Amino acid sequence: MTVTETETATERLIRIGEVARGAGVSVRAVRYYEQQGLLVAERSPSGQRLYRQDAIALVRFFQQMFAAGLTSRRITELLPCWNSGHTDAEQRAMLHTERARIQTKVDDLQTALDRLDDLIAITDTHP
After folding, report:
1. Cα–chain-centroid distance for residue 30?
2. 20 to 30 A Cα–Cα from 3, which one of 12, 22, 121, 127?
3. No. of H helices and E strands in the chain?
4. Is 22 left (phi over 0), alpha (psi -120 to 50) or beta?
5. Alpha-carbon distance 20 to 40, whole Å?
C-alpha cells in the first residue's frame, strides 16, 4: 500500500462522535450497534473507534428499521441485502413480509391521523 492509498483510506474513516452527530444518535447508540454486530469499527493506533463514511447512512437505516419495529436480529438479516444489493429468494420473501407489516402500521397510523383531523375539525368549530 502506498502512502497515498493509506492517506485516502484514513480520510474515509471517521470517529464515533462524527458518526453519532451525522446520524442524529448518541455515541452510546453507535456502540450498541457495534455490540449487536450491526456496525464494524476499525481501531486507531490509540484505540479510538474509526468508521467508514457510509456508517452514517447505515446508522440512519438502523434507526428507521428500529422505528418500524424490526429487531436487531432482523436488521442483521437485512445487512447482506444492503451491502451487496443482491438477495436470494428467502431474503426477498423476508423483505416483502417486513414491507407488508410496515405498510399495515402506516395504514393504521393514517386512520388514526384521519380521526384526529376529524376531531380537530369538530373542536375548531365548537370551541
Report:
1. 11
2. 22
3. 6, 3
4. alpha
5. 14
Which secondary-structure segment (H or E) carries 15?
A: strand 13-15
Q: Which amino acid is at 68?
A: A
Place of cell 464494524: 40
**How far apart, in whole angstroms, are the C-alpha atoms of residue 58 and residue 104?**
25
How high is the pLDDT of residue 7?
42
CB neighbour burial string for 65-95, b if at least 16 within 10 angstroms, e if fewer: beeeebebeebebbeeeeeeeeeeeeeeebe
Query: pTM here?
Result: 0.75
Phi-psi region of 98 (alpha: psi -120 to 50; beta: other; left: phi over 0): alpha
42 near 21, Cβ under 8 Å? no
pLDDT of residue 12: 79
Residue numbers in the chain where pLDDT is lower than 50: 1-10
Question: Looking at residue 37, what DSSP letter applies?
Answer: T
Measure the CA–CA gap between 28 and 17, rounded to whole angstroms. 10
